[in-house]
Records
---
Amino acid sequence: MDKFLTEAISEAKKGLAEGGIPIGSVIVHNSKILGKGHNRRIQKGSVVLHGEMDAFENAGRQPASVYRECILYTTLSPCPMCSGAILLYGIPKVVIGENETFLGDESLLKERGVEVIVADSPECKELMKQFIRNNPALWNEDIGK
């Protein structure tokens, strides 16, 4: 498995250990992690701190030219908000751990020229399946059911 997806999974596990939703993300520039994060919506009482958004926050202010050379790794298909941030900052490539549990706005990303790769990771799928089984109310709260 790709070492950066492995790092995103590690972030997802951190989030789970903190009592949050197990979704992690890393932003990579020139084979170095620029920012990493995990879903902290529950931990911080936040409506925006999804894994991808936390990774952007932790990457800090970067010139657009840097973001246009990055790859974003995420354990779960990005929601509309996170897909919007990917497009806003011009991230050209996204590697997704899995999209069976939740299918985000991959079609929009592809339409706008982002290369989308789905790794179909059994570990990512199992993390989410267990979380949803054990915490259906928290999961449904975040995805708007």
---
Amino acid sequence: MKRPADRGFTLVELLITVAIVAVLAMGAMPFMQLVNQRAKEQELRTALRQIRVAIDAYKKAGDEGRILRKADASGYPPSLEVLVEGVDNIKTEGPKRWVFLRRVPRDPFFADRSVEAARTWGRRSYDSPWDSPREGKDVFDVYSLTEGVGLDGTPYREW
């Protein structure tokens, strides 16, 4: 028959177990941060692709004469919101209103959630140089406003 003192764990055994679990958890933290950053980077790539495809579709529709374009305009959308609101189709075939995006995706690295999604992106106009983008009368391209650097070493602003 066992005595009551022979059953259960000692305090030292419990402390060693807790210490081992803590060391394992501390080792998993950097891995989880890496996984989170990779997920945000993939979301950033997807959002940039969606917006850029919509900008190109708007430009193509203007070049084909499907939407109204002023003679002095570049043919690119005047804002990101126009891609969601849509523009009138001036040709008879197809839909009466062309919508290029269901919604403007949010930059996943933009911290302030109170800012509307279209304002989380930097916008480059057609007449702005590639190495120092600035806003103008149209939206030729978008870029992340985040100062961070991706896992591949490229700043997010250059994606």
---
Amino acid sequence: MRQFILFSSLSLLLFSCTTTSKNEKLKANEWLIGQWENTSEEGILTENWTKPNDSTLAAGSFFIKEKDTLHFEAIRLVEKEGELVYETTIKGQNNDKPILFPLISETENELVFENLQNDYPQKIKYQRNSKTVITIAISGTQAKKVVSEQFKMTKVK
């Protein structure tokens, strides 16, 4: 009987440790959740991040100029086999299939994703500057020139 209780206790402990480590990287980056905006002369860039389930963070990113939506993409940050992957789907690009950017670098306040096969961008970086400010940087080669853009985003919700 003692062996059964000991075995059951160890099994429960082992199972609970495995469960808590699942999606650990995703949980560490829940600082993305919320509505983020960048307002410029060109228009308003918005990313609205939510957590639809335990294994996914999702966002809609759109750029609006006056009353026209000039750009929209659906973004998912998913944890697959312990690794984070940034998936973006842009209507009319890549046959409407997601483009995958695996995580190449991570700190407590920064995520860097890269896909060297993508036309542009090849690198996407999210940096947490404070609880209410993040910087999104995209970069890569476009028309044989190195291009880099940064968007300072403020949390509005």
